[in-house]
Design a protein that fits this description.
Layout (H helix, E strand, L loop, with lengths): L3 H19 L3 H20 L22
Length: 67
């Protein structure tokens, strides 16, 4: 878990970013919103970033037979 200090620092950073974005022109804000949308769509299209899966070995149906 993050500490209270870390949470406070992140909240201050978010507030500063929001204030800076509010000072941008409408055109600049639109470009940022478009870029955010591109990143979100790309991130949502990525599948399977978890751990690789390992297949179970096939059962040996003839244990007495040599290879």
């Amino acid at each position: 878990m993050p500490s209270d200090e870390e949470i406070t620092r992140i909240r201050r950073l978010i507030s500063r970013i929001k204030a800076d974005v509010d000072e941008l022109s409408d055109e600049d804000r639109a470009q940022i919103n478009e870029a955010v949308g591109v990143v979100r769509r790309a991130r949502n299209s990525v599948v399977g970033l978890g751990l690789p899966s390992v297949r179970q070995p096939l059962p040996d149906i003839r244990p007495d037979r040599s290879a």
